[in-house]
Amino acid sequence: MKDIIQTIKNTDWQHITEMMHENGYAIIPNLLSDEECELIKSNYDNTALYRKTVVMARHRFGLGEYKYFNYPLPEIIQTVRTNIYPYLAPIANSWFKALHIDIQFPSDHQAFLQQCHANGQHKATVLVLKYKEKGFNTLHQDLYGDLYFPIQIVLMLSEPDQDFTGGEFVLTQQIPRAQSKAIVLQPKKGDALIFTTQFKPEKGTKGYYRVNMKHGVSEVKEGSRYALGIIFHDAIS
């Protein structure tokens, strides 16, 4: 866990902040080692770790499967979630301030979770996702309740063009009074992709305005694609 914590500390957070403001996403390369990725994947069938399994086709979410973890979270996941949050909270606070949203997030993640619990949101939202050939995820936003953190993370657990082909991460940006913009990303195994949960502020001639964004996964052409989603707010159900 010390290597993960040190990597987070050594990250150029000024650069990450600038990328988040400009694009709504940023990447921390090699946050997890190959062994750590494989450990998370190896526990995919350990039912004791999970509170819920979702078969995506049943809900028309796409084609694939994902599982929500139970509390307590595995140590690797808890370490990432707890140690990254304090660096993201200032970004989230600056976004809400720019958009005149009267919410400010505490610097400590546990304090934020206490706010979630007071709002009736008690269930873990961290999830592991698995896509096989032809699997995909439709465009969506991960909110889970009235109280949500506006930034989340996906950690890639499989190596593109080795473990799978296709399966790109897709962000769409809805520009007011214009067509949507598509952003296609392919993080490497162990990379942490940080991105907006719902929107980001954009500066216009009359101040900041809200740009709504959604995310999904394009069709996997071959192989299997695993990813870990870290969402910082808890869920009602």
Write the layout of secondary structure elements.
Layout: H1 2-10, H2 13-23, E1 25-28, H3 34-42, E2 50-55, E3 62-63, E4 65-69, H4 75-98, H5 109-118, E5 127-131, E6 136-140, E7 151-156, E8 164-166, E9 169-174, E10 181-185, E11 192-196, E12 199-204, E13 207-217, E14 220-223, E15 225-230
Antiparallel strand pairs: 1-11, 2-4, 3-6, 4-5, 5-15, 6-13, 7-11, 7-15, 8-14, 9-10, 9-13, 12-13
Order of helices and strands: HHEHEEEHHEEEEEEEEEEE
Specify the number of helices. Answer: 5
Strand content: 25-35%
**Major β-sheet annotation:** 7 strands, antiparallel
Class inferred from helices and paired strands: alpha+beta
Read across the widest sheet, the strand sequence of neighbours is 1-11-7-15-5-4-2
Strand segment tally = 15
Helix content: 25-40%
Q: On the 0-100 scale, what is the average pLDDT?
A: 96
Spatial gap, N to C terminus: 30 Å
Question: What's the shape?
Answer: globular
Q: What is the radius of gyration?
A: 17 Å
Protein name: 2OG-Fe(II) oxygenase
Pfam family, one: Oxygenase-NA
InterPro entries: DUF2086
In words, what does this structure look like?
The chain is an alpha+beta fold and 237 residues long. The protein starts with a helix and ends in a 7-residue tail after the last strand. It is built from five helices and 15 strands. The longest helix has 24 residues, at 75-98. Helix 2 packs across helix 4 (75-98). 27% of the residues lie in helices and 33% in strands. It has helices at 2-10, 13-23, 34-42, 75-98, 109-118, and strands spanning 25-28, 50-55, 62-63, 65-69, 127-131, 136-140, 151-156, 164-166, 169-174, 181-185, 192-196, 199-204, 207-217, 220-223, 225-230. The protein has a seven-stranded antiparallel beta sheet. Strands 3, 6, 9, 10, 12 and 13 form a six-stranded antiparallel beta sheet that branches.
